[in-house]
TrEMBL record:
Pfam family, one: PDZ_2
KW Hydrolase (keyword) present: yes
Keyword vocabulary terms for this entry: Hydrolase, Membrane, Protease, Serine protease, Transmembrane, Transmembrane helix
Domain of life: Bacteria
Family the UniProt entry places it in: Belongs to the peptidase S41A family.
Occurrences of domain PDZ (ranges): 90-160
Name of this protein: Peptidase S41
Membrane-spanning parts: 12-29
Keyword set includes Lyase: no
């Protein structure tokens, strides 16, 4: 697979999802939805035109669709992060960022037009009821869920509902002739924004945050306190591929690392009014060594945390230059249930730098920045990172930092240049490996469902599974030879199995064992101790 091919196939999904999460960085205050008055000629002109079209145009026209098109075109002329959210999208986006849903607590695949359980989520209704990975849910409250060609959204609507409402399930389990009956009550199911909090070695802890949702700070504190009880003295905060989220969550997390009164960031609106944010007395990790992992998909709230740490000389940024989003959005609801996120301010790091990339060449150029970085070599060589000397700032400790386009790392780690390396990583992030692993586990559910995580630590990926994966890709029209990357493929397969059997934290215990950025952190720690 060529670079161009995998770029087109996987990257839009990863970056699109990442930046969609980053657009949530806002004050989430419902501002005045319109400053137009009844006498405003611009508003009157638009209303008149729509009335003429609706009442007098020769053909019937969907004016709702026309208004949506007009709104999108208006926002496109502002900046890349002022966006429109349809009524249909709004609910699911809000739910995802709220950090919980009300449902039965499963993840699932559609397999041969049936609902196959990937995992019953910890402490959820399905887990408590005894629903196992590999079970097929055939009916829910008498509604047939198999052989119906239902969309995922339709299935989710059946399984979700109001708190404490009852759900009666009929389930097919391999090895059982009769259908199994389960009766359970819907409950709140957390949508985790913190994937893992694990001990890497005797005094180094690791926390992975995938986005900044409403519950992120609380999830983070729980993991941090757990690591401190286990003896963690130094910490790695992994914000790679984290496209951002709520501003207040980023500020709260940065606060945990900084001395009372230390600046975290400030924002400035069109009129020049500024709002400053400072650390408080609550700091609970202000002395240990701190490392923030970033890559080219780390944006918005991730950059706020990294900028506060770097500008105050509190820790080290490890990885590659971040995305470069320094605009603040406010969400404003519209009359039909849709919403717009309008850029209302810029944020600045403690030294006074804006890390927003230029967007004067249009949205297409702006969102294709990854390709430009690849071509100019900055993903491979630190010296190729393009900085603006006129936007040079100095931290209190004398470090030189730059504005105008993301956070430049203190410790640079190049991106792997080998096609197969990158393809494997995209397969893992994009779910290709996860889907294959589900089918492999389904071949012997009794064995895998009886494994404990301790048992699994000694599990070796069989050669047959590697061959099966190659054949699986062949069926998808991809031809690979993994001989030179067998160890990496084994690690990714083992991590995917761990995630489906024991949860994401178990997967990160495997993935962190061979990670160039974490190896660089450990080397730096050893040299500085």
């Amino acid at each position: 697979m060529s670079k161009k091919h995998y770029h087109k196939k996987y990257l839009p999904l990863i970056i699109g999802t990442s930046i969609a999460m980053g657009l949530f960085i806002n004050f989430f205050i419902n501002g005045n939805p319109s400053r137009f008055s009844a006498n405003n000629t611009t508003q009157l002109k638009i209303n008149q035109l729509l009335n003429y079209i609706e009442n007098d145009y020769v053909d019937e026209v969907n004016t709702d669709s026309m208004v949506t098109t007009m709104v999108n075109q208006m926002l496109d002329n502002l900046d890349p992060h002022s966006t429109y959210i349809s009524k249909e999208e709004y609910g699911s986006i809000r739910e995802n960022m709220k950090g919980e849903i009300v449902g039965i607590g499963i993840s699932f695949y559609k397999v041969e037009d049936s609902i196959a359980v990937i995992q019953s989520l910890p402490n959820g209704p399905s887990k408590k009821a005894g629903i196992l990975p590999g079970d097929r849910i055939l009916f829910a409250n008498g509604i047939k869920l198999h052989d119906q060609n239902l969309s995922n959204d339709s299935i989710i609507k059946v399984l979700k509902g109001k708190m404490n409402t009852d759900v009666s399930l009929k389930v097919k389990r391999k090895g059982k002739e009769e259908l199994l009956d389960f009766n359970l009550s819907r409950d709140r199911i957390p949508i985790q924004s913190v994937n893992a909090g694990i001990v890497l070695n005797q005094n180094l802890g690791y926390i992975k945050i995938n986005r900044f949702a409403e519950t992120t700070y609380q999830e983070f504190i729980e993991k941090l306190n757990q690591l401190k009880r286990q003896g963690t003295k130094n910490l790695v905060l992994d914000l790679r591929d984290n496209g951002g989220g709520f501003l207040k969550e980023a500020i709260a997390i940065a606060d945990e690392f900084l001395q009372d009164g230390t600046p975290i960031l400030y924002t400035k609106n069109r009129s020049g009014k500024t709002k400053e944010n400072f650390a408080t007395r609550k700091s609970s990790f202000k002395n240990g060594q701190l490392y923030i992992l970033l890559n080219e998909n780390s944006a918005s709230a991730s950059e706020i945390v990294a900028g506060a740490i770097q500008d105050n000389d509190r820790g080290y940024i490890v990885g590659r230059r971040s995305y470069g989003k320094g605009l603040v959005q406010r969400e404003m609801k519209l009359a039909d249930g849709s919403a717009v996120r309008l850029t209302v301010a810029r944020y600045y790091t403690p030294t006074g730098r804006s890390i927003q990339r230029p967007y004067s060449n249009g949205n297409s150029s702006y969102f294709n920045d990854y390709e430009k970085r690849y071509e100019n070599g900055e993903l491979l060589e630190r010296d190729s990172i393009q900085v603006n000397d006129s936007l040079k700032f100095t931290t209190p400790g004398g470090r030189i930092v730059y504005g105008g386009g993301g956070i430049v790392p203190d410790i640079f780690i190049p991106k792997k240049v080998n096609n197969l390396d990158e393809d494997l990583e995209y397969m893992l992030k994009g779910g290709v490996i996860d889907r294959f692993v589900f089918d492999e586990l389904d071949k012997d559910r009794k064995f895998y469902n009886n494994l404990t995580e301790e048992d699994y630590s000694n599990f070796e990926i069989p050669k047959e599974m590697l061959l099966n994966y190659t054949e699986y890709l062949n069926q998808l029209a991809f031809n690979y030879n993994f001989e030179t990357h067998e160890d990496k493929l084994k690690r990714f397969l083992k991590a995917s199995i761990a995630k489906q059997l024991f949860g994401e934290e178990a997967a990160y215990r495997i993935l962190t064992k061979s990670d160039p950025m974490l190896e660089a952190v450990q080397k730096h720690l050893n040299e500085s101790s």
